Amino acid sequence: MRTMLIVVVVLMVGVAGLGFYRGWFQLSSDTDNAGHSINATFTVDEDKMRDDKEKLQEFGHQEQEETGATNEQDE
Q1: How does DSSP classify residue 24?
Q2: 3-class SS at 23?
Q3: Rounded to whole angstroms, how far apart are CA atoms 40 and 30?
Q4: Distance (Å, rounded) from C-alpha 3 to C-alpha 21?
């Protein structure tokens, strides 16, 4: 059970790191005029995520076509 929890935490950290790196997530903060409080904003860019997903799918289809063409030439 402990190993499963560690795997889940590592996966979550990995996805969060990839998301910040690719620009899917943004974290910003600002203070009020008096400086007594800090407001933090977490933003998810769904359009960027969708674009990256489509690019990944296109890459997969391109690789399948190239592999299929190579297999047909071998025959």
Answers
A1: S
A2: coil
A3: 7
A4: 27
pLDDT in tens, 38-74: 888 999 999 999 999 999 898 888 777 777 655 555 5
Q: Write down the pLDDT at residue 73.
A: 52
Domain boundaries, the chain: 1-44, 46-75
Could you list the beta-strand ranges (E) of the chain. Answer: 25-31, 38-44
What integer pLDDT is reported at residue 28 of this predicted model? 92
Tokens in use for 61?
């289809």
In this prediction the pTM is 0.63
**Single-letter amino acid, residue 46:** E
The C-alpha atoms of residue 44 and residue 15 are separated, in whole angstroms, by 13
Cα–Cα distances in angstroms (integers) from residue 28 to residues 13, 14, 39, 57, in the given order: 19, 20, 8, 31
